[in-house]
Structure formats: structure tokens, C-alpha cells
Amino acid sequence: MSMGILDPVKFLQGALEIPSPSGEERLLAEYLAEGMERLGMRAFVDEADNARGQVGHGPLQVVLLGHIDTVPGVIPVRLIEGKLFGRGAVDAKGPFVAMIFAAAGLSERALSRLTVHLVGATEEEVPSSKGARFVTGRLKPDYVVIGEPSGWEGITLGYKGRLLVRVRREKDHFHSAHHEPNAAEELISYFVAIKAWAEAMNVGQRPFDQVQYTLRDFQVHPAELKQVAEMFLDLRLPPRLPPEEAIRHLTAYAPPTLELEFFGREVPYLGPKDTPLTRALRQGIRKAGGRPVFKLKTGTSDMNVLAPHWPVPMVAYGPGDSALDHTPHEHLEVEEFLKSITALREALEALAKMGAKG
Questions:
Q1: Count of the separate structural domains present in the chain
Q2: Which of 211, 236, 266 is the last residue before a domain boundary?
Q3: What's the helix, strand, coil split of the chain in %, to 5?
Q4: Quick one: which residues bind Zn(2+) 1 (predicted)?
Q5: Which is nearest to 105 in space by CA: 348, 336, 332, 356?
Q6: Structural domain includes residue 2
Q7: Residue 139's pLDDT band (cuts 50, 70, 90)
Q8: Which residues contribute to the annotated binding site for Zn(2+)?
Q9: Whole-model pTM?
Q10: Which residues are catalytic, by number?
Q11: pLDDT of residue 3
Q12: Binding residues
């Protein structure tokens, strides 16, 4: 299948020029679907506004899924000294466009052994993960690659889980001379207890196995008859602490006067190092001139959403430095982008040659 009719860098640049904050991905999805059609794929935009493509007619089902939404914020799209700047260049339009061109360059032999499903998923940057959840019951993959920045030589095996917590305290107002903790002070005491619990859990653990906690918001509402204080916590959870277990701990530390609300639950995931998929990716990276390295990420991705539904070999892969995610300096090295296309295409070829299911 020829890629000559579209230039990968120019196509990615066009994708970056279409704003796609979470919930507003439709125009970008249409652009990506049109591009996939021009590359000879069967392509469409589905009911969740995902950009969908399919190529090949073989028995082995491979899903390449990357998210096409971004966090808010505009970065002028420009190509300077081999660096392509723009919101989503790294997280994660760049990885998904690399997937498109990797699949578009497959040999006829690979296409006879694989059916590759491309999913440009919506709303990954918000707790809904609308796009990934939409396809869970509609595709039945044997292998899954999530399009996230790992660096073109990196293979990500796992992501931490997540739990968001809203804590509220409401109590009758009283004079400040009265010797009693106010609503805000009660929340502060709870936060100190949670901080001590997390730090005790983290003793002797590597970063991936630690509990991370962030106080995202703290508000004290003007008091008239009632005092009201609220705080918002973001916890990143290691594989040994799934969300339900974390909830048990957080509830145990909370006095009955506090109202706790839990949401944004994402199960941690850590996949094995040795599967046909990881072997194929290592081969592909080496063929493209790289030295493969395994990585673990302390954030979350659509991998957390999909792993409970698709118990098959799964990794995350894509060009870019994840340290640039969400920053005003987000950019992708063009050379790395092109190498990732070659590496992923070679990995798919290797997977087709193996012909084995996970």
C-alpha cells in the first residue's frame, strides 16, 4: 500500500492546526478519516466522534488506538529546525498519526494475515474516556497498541491507576473565639492524615509502586449560618492498590462528619515483558536503528480503561517526550516521528510473520 499521496509530516501539521479539546474532536476526526481513506483504508467517524480506520483482511486482529483530544490551550503550529510545535504534537496526535502511516505502509503479506483497526479516540484527557469506552464491546483484538509518547525506542508496559476524591465539610457557624476546629481546619487534618498514610505506603517502593497524591483544589465558602469547606484530591495508584482498596483506606481515615465522593476510577495496569507483541516491537525498533527499552508511566491512559475489557497483550508506543505533555513548549522531533512510523510498521510486519495469538 502506497503512502506517497500524503506526506506524514504535512498531514500531522494539518491535524495540529485543527483544535480538538476534549468534547470538540469532530472536525479533527473527519480530517483523519479522510486521510485514512486517501491512504486506501476503510474509514469513518463513529457515534462517539472517534476517527476509525481499518486495513487488512487477515485473522489476527490488531487495534491501534490513540487519543485525538487535547487539553485546552493554543500553541502556534510551526516547524522550526526539525521540531514540530503544536498542542497535541506529543499528546497524542503525533503518536496516532504515526500509527496511521505505519498501517498504511504494510506489505500485502502482512495485510493477508492481519486486520488492523485504527481508533482515534475522543475524551481521553477527561475522566469520561468516551472514545475508548465506546469501542470496548465493538472490537475483539488479539493485540493492542495504545498511542502515547514513549519515545520511539520506548515500549510502555504499564500505567498507574487513578482515583479522584471530593471531600466536603459543612457545619454550623460559630464565633472564631470558640475553641473548636472550623470546617476548613477539619479538612486540613484529614489531608494530613492521608498524606501520612500515603508516605507510609511508599517507604522502600520504586516510583511506579508509590501512591502519589495531589491537592488539586481547596475552597472555603463565605460563612453565614453554615461553614462549608471543600477539597479535591487526585491519587495515582500502583498495581498493588486498586481504586476500591484505596477507597477503603480513605474512608477509614475520614471522620463521619466528612462527606466523601469518589470518581474517575481507573484500574492500574502492568503487562508482561515477553509477549509476541513486545517481541515484535523490539524487532521493529531494532530494524529502525534503535535500542528498545521498557518503560512504566506514573500517569494514566486509555490503557487503564481498555485492559479490564481486553485481556490480551497490550503496550503503549509512540514518538515524543512525555515531559512535554500539556506544556506550552509541546513539540515533536520530526526525525523521531518518522522513525516511529518505520519501527511500528516493522513491528506489525513481524507480528504478521509470527502469526500467533497472544
A1: 2
A2: 266
A3: 35, 30, 40
A4: 67, 91, 148
A5: 348
A6: no
A7: very high
A8: 67, 91, 125, 148, 326
A9: 0.90
A10: 69, 124
A11: 47
A12: 67, 91, 125, 148, 326
